[in-house]
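Schema walk-through. Below, the input block comes first and the output block second. Nothing else is stored per chain. Lengths vary across the set, and this one has 188 residues.
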Amino acid sequence: MRLIVGISGGSGVIYGIRLLQVLKKLNVESHLIITTAGRETIRLETSFKLSEVEALATENYRIGDIASKLSSGSFRTDGMVIIPASMKTVGGIASGYADNLLLRAAEVTLKERRPLVLVPRETPLNLIHLENMVKVTQAGAVVLPAMPAFYQKPKSVDDLVDHIVGKVLDILGVEHDLYRRWTGVRSE
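--- output ---
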């Protein structure tokens, strides 16, 4: 399996880092694009060095490398995830404004009818955010907000992060054991 992973400047870069860790463990080929704001957010929100995050991916790409193989539909992938997806990135995808590699790779993913999962991490949402999420959904993307469930009785922030990463993997058809699945109500 081959996936493109984008980390934009929205808060919650730990979701993208955890996704990369899991993909590496599962031997899934990952192609990483981090925006300039994403690089800064990694520095601000985590103790990870950028080099450590990049080492989790199979290949890394510069945000301005618009001639990269990721900018062509002839480079076959099994899908793309932008985690977290800033509202700037969602707006760029919604309007077809592909002025960097992350936006171009998302555009290619949509035009080739491959799965595109966007994990917005913004709250509250204004009307422009909501309209842009509707537009990308109508274009074929899956909008999967970072809204963890609590039925598995999480005991840590890591459990909450794993739930969202697991939901992303579910959309992409990647088997995992990151969270306990709901099995219905049991009698006590």
